[in-house]
Design a protein that fits this description.
Distance between the termini: 85 Å
CATH superfamily of the largest domain: PPM-type phosphatase domain
Number of domains: 3
CATH architecture of the largest domain: 4-Layer Sandwich
Organism: Herbidospora galbida
GO molecular function, one term: phosphatase activity
Structural class: alpha+beta
Keywords: Hydrolase
InterPro entries: Bact_Sigma-Reg, GAF, GAF-like_dom_sf, PPM-type-like_dom_sf, PPM-type_phosphatase-like_dom
CATH class of the largest domain: Alpha Beta
Helix content: 25-40%
Largest sheet: 6 strands, mixed
CATH topology of the largest domain: Phosphatase 2c, domain 1
Protein name: GAF domain-containing protein
Radius of gyration: 37 Å
Length: 482
């Protein structure tokens, strides 16, 4: 028989068994306990004569098989036959129905990588198919004492009372299912164990007994739920580490540029768990003088992040040491090449801005980067900066800075290829000077408004999410002093 089913009536079953054994007339007999739906049948098989009813059994009898006599008594399990019709349990149907249930449960559990959502999904899968209520206990960060993470009851009016009863419940420490001591319900605890680590406990309860099939299903579901919870936690830890790494590769705070109208937008691609290769920077190096950079490292992930960090910090350090724009780019090229096998190609737009009485003076190097565009107040858009070699390829590459002047109201736009190469089928956003046409529509807009207009156009260009990082840098020579 299923041993756990007899636990609620174990003492009474033993008493009746002793009574049956006391009536044995011979020396040889056999005792059996049989799990029969909503009851436990106790049998003593012997050779002998008839006898009267054993104590106060719900049902009893004598049957014969060949020269053997079987005396039996039956005990009703708690809740068996006494559950109101509206709460009565419907026996699980055999497979393939339950196999479909497990398949659907697996899909739901695999559909989230948020560890905070997994306990809620577990409980709502279980109730009411397998149990009247479900409580999921987990530990913070997978370690420490277990706490009640999520509770779901088929009857919401009973949730508060159940929560109070669960406050002092002793959770099982065994590797397998365990019976819990909770008044008024039959409750079982299933450990949530994945990859050799115990992550929590799934507790199920109901007023009537648990059918054999539901116990097996609950054990299977607990294994799948534990694996889903562990996967979600591992993903969340990796995502948190990547976010921290990504933040370290960007300026610590939004750039403040008094006397200069500027705005930057940075968006990593989609919802992937990779560190992007795009970066930007805008920082002062003197009174009324700033440096800016916007770049794109080939690839994503830790290898690209290493080159991104090298580039951003090298640019800042050399610029503040007094190196000119071209010298900074040349030395960065050598630093990337010295990385050897870890080196990645890098495109870069690096410049210096000086506030002048009649606008902004700039020194600019475009190293393999998408063209920088200038918008005049008249709506004319032209390319600024001559294209030069990308970084990390040619050790002999030399760089020269172009001098550019922005009149009041002029706008300089720098983007990464997440903008210019936004794809819709076989067509790119920048085909037929598409980006220049977008910029021409931004006359008289602030730097922020220009950046937001470009971002919205990128999003609207294709229905699917972008597969590339995006960075937009807009500098505008103010018409009047800010």
């Amino acid at each position: 028989m299923t041993a756990w089913a007899a636990m609620p009536v174990g003492a009474e079953a033993e008493r009746l068994t002793r009574a049956l054994v006391e009536g044995v007339s011979g020396e040889s007999f056999e005792v059996r306990w049989l799990h029969q739906g909503d009851s436990i049948q106790l049998e003593v098989i012997e050779r002998g004569h008839d006898y009267g009813p054993p104590l106060d059994a719900a049902d009893w009898g004598v049957s014969f098989s060949g020269n053997s006599r079987v005396r039996w008594a039956r005990l009703d399990l708690p809740g068996g036959g006494g559950v109101p019709e509206e709460e009565a349990w419907t026996e699980p149907t055999p497979s393939p129905g339950w196999l479909g249930f497990l398949a659907d449960a697996s899909d739901l559990l695999a559909g989230t990588l948020d560890p905070g959502m997994v306990p809620a999904i577990i409980a709502q899968i279980v109730v009411p198919r397998l149990a009247s209520w479900c409580a999921v206990y987990t530990a913070d960060q997978g370690t420490g004492p277990l706490r009640l993470d999520y509770l779901w009851h088929a009857d919401e009016a009973q949730s508060d009372a159940l929560r109070a009863r669960l406050t002092d419940v002793v959770l099982p420490s065994a590797d397998g299912p365990a019976v819990l001591n909770i008044d008024g319900t039959q409750a079982l605890g299933f450990p949530l164990t994945a990859r050799g680590r115990r992550l929590g406990v799934m507790c199920l309860g109901r007023r009537d007994r648990f059918p054999d099939e539901s116990l097996q299903l609950a054990e299977d579901l607990a294994r799948r739920a534990a694996l889903a919870l562990d996967n979600a936690r591992l993903y969340a830890q990796q995502a948190a580490a990547n976010r921290a790494l990504q933040r370290s590769l960007l300026p610590p705070e939004e750039p403040r540029t008094p006397g200069l109208d500027s705005y930057v937008i940075y968006e990593p691609a989609g919802e992937t768990n990779e560190v992007g290769g795009d970066f930007y920077d805008l920082f002062p190096i003197g009174d009324g003088v700033w440096r800016f950079a916007i770049g794109d490292v080939c690839g994503t992930g830790p290898s690209a992040a290493a080159v991104t960090g090298l580039a951003r910090h090298t640019i800042r350090l050399l610029a503040r040491e007094g190196y000119g724009v071209a010298a900074v780019v040349g030395r960065l090229n050598q630093a990337i090449l010295e990385e050897g096998e870890r080196a990645r190609f890098l495109t870069l737009l690096h410049g210096e801005i000086t506030i002048a009485a009649d606008g902004l003076d700039m020194r600019l190097v475009s190293a393999g980067h998408p063209e920088a565009l200038r918008l005049r107040p008249s709506g004319v858009v032209d390319v600024v900066g001559s294209p030069q070699s990308l970084l990390g390829v040619f050790p002999e590459a030399e760089f020269e800075a172009d001098s550019i002047h922005l009149e009041p109201g002029d706008v300089l736009l720098g983007v990464t290829d997440g903008v210019t190469e936004r794809r819709q089928g076989s067509r790119l956003l920048d085909d037929e000077s598409g980006l220049a046409k977008l910029l021409a529509e931004c006359v008289d807009l602030s730097a922020r408004a220009v950046a937001e207009r470009i971002r919205r156009a990128v999003q609207d260009f294709a229905p699917e999410p972008s597969a590339d990082d995006l960075a937009i840098l807009v500098l505008r020579a103010p018409v009047e002093p800010l």
